[in-house]
């Protein structure tokens, strides 16, 4: 790799060769990367370095790569581009500011690619046809603000980057990447996944406190931190990324936080997830595509819903940049931020700013239309883009060249006063209170044998994945208890012979409909009951079990999606996490079934069945593996131990 002086590399901005400028969180300099760009088809084709002396690569991973997980998407052909770093240098922020022209960037025209009325119709259909029918807890539906950029598009992107260096704070990556025919520029708050020294980290972020153009007020901040909706939304995202960590980290993920992510216009709440693993970093990327904050959950069906209702591709929106290298000891490294709050500018000067609204059970089309307008305006404001006549979305404020005049400003100077709350004792206490009812199992480091139960040690378990990777977290808990776990998809259940326990797992959908998946799950439950093989059914599996036993299933008027409730479960009171639209009901605490007497844990007022058990089977409507299930690992242990015969 060449080691050109900084000034020479700064001059490459003007040559048209591919380059990337990165200012990463915690670093006081800008990294300058140049080199040839190539196109690859699969993540495994990314030419990752094989030794510490090999140069890094920077991959622009499009959303369409989610196909590598077998998930659906509208394939728009967006290429996966890889910049092979032939030259790398570091420059001070001041040097980069001086090297980039300070000139206003004006947009021409400007409108969303789909109008408000069309978007409202999509939102209404997702709410009624998907969330209302149990297809998932939340879905992110995007639209794209499009405009033209006057002048040279690369110079415009560099000017935007310059403004971000001056105005934005708290970003995970502030970047501009030019591949030759398109340029991406933005300031993303969110790490998707990183790997360093064998440590895998993810960074679920949710909850937004907007303070653009004014000094934030502490009372408002505390109210935001105690808002139940904001707390629940972050918990849902946390669960979804814990599912991914359970797939790539050898002992699952440990939750650290929550923290404040304080940026110039916004403050978010976030957690960090950490775990150790030895997979190739390209496999880590594949197994974590993509963040629930930009797709929805459960992730597999969310991809299906997004493809069905958006009807067009996403380009790079919601996917990742991925910087892949080796550390001095030769170990693989990965740093992959999420591509949000990013402008995508092609060689003709066409600018695209994708934004999404997260649809949940309480959403309305009007509110989500307003949310996308606010997000687009916020991104344009953060990017410092000036609107021209006919612009369809106005920024919250009017940042631009006059937000920080001149060219020799100190990095980080901001036009508005800076008030930071992260170190405030009251704020810290409010953040800590969020963890009071979460599962300690996921919040603390775990010794390998801490939860091992001799009665369960070595017992073989078959877990059926019904399209919800909560099975990854459940599998991890079962293994921590000492059991040997095999996971199979509902499309390939196969024989259950030789297993000590069968677990029909969770998944989206209406269990009352005799579609292919539900038929498979029902046959599995019926055959397992007939064989007298021990069975623990979870969520969807529980609903199917309850139906086979003769209990009626009902659609709840208000779905329990990402909701924590205190319930009484067979002699204990505990808080558990629900992700369900349907529920079994019964008026009695016990009833006789063809497979023996069944005991129920239910709501005495509504008859809602939260759990059931008999001599050889049990079912739970909630998710004991969820971070919302405070004592979930103990519930799993006790239920499983009660089903398995004693060792001879």
Automatic annotation (TrEMBL):
Organism domain of life:
Bacteria
GO BP: L-tryptophan biosynthetic process
Reactions it catalyzes: chorismate + L-glutamine = anthranilate + pyruvate + L-glutamate + H(+)
Per its record, what are the GO molecular function terms? anthranilate synthase activity
Q: From the UniProt entry, list the residue stretches annotated as the region Disordered.
A: 384-415
Give all residue intervals belonging to the Chorismate-utilising enzyme C-terminal domain.
Answer: 117-375
Q: Which CDD domains match?
A: GATase1_Anthranilate_Synthase
One matching Pfam family, short form? GATase
The cross-references to InterPro entries, in alphabetical order and at most eight, read: ADC_synthase (IPR005801), Anth_synth_I-like (IPR019999), Chorismate_C (IPR015890), Class_I_gatase-like (IPR029062), GATASE (IPR017926), TrpG/PapA_dom (IPR006221)
Nucleotide-binding in keyword set: no
Per the database record, which ranges form the Glutamine amidotransferase domain? 462-639
PANTHER family named in the record: AMINOBENZOATE/ANTHRANILATE SYNTHASE, ANTHRANILATE SYNTHASE COMPONENT 1
According to UniProt, the name of this protein is anthranilate synthase
Organism from which the protein derives:
Rugosimonospora africana
